[in-house]
Amino acid sequence: MEDLLLTSEEIQNITVGFTGKRIEEIPVTALGPVLLKEIAQAQLNKAASLIRRQALIEGITMYAWWKDSVQYVGTTGKTLKEAIAKISEEQK
What we know:
Layout: H1 8-19, H2 28-62, E1 65-67, E2 70-73, E3 78-79, H3 80-90
Antiparallel strand pairs: 1-2, 2-3
């Protein structure tokens, strides 16, 4: 599973989007609780997204069925591998 913590680049993007400046250009005292709240919310959103993706993958894996040494999901002939790839792409 991917790292649940925001990367430095993600924090930088939030800071630039929120203030218009890179984090290095902002005095520490000026960051304030509003920017910290934005960063915390982004952290929660990332964690929730990763948890949601993992739950979907575990759910479809539980109901996958075997045929000729290949796992399938549903009734459309989609393989488990294809379904996981689609979930991973959609949840990014």
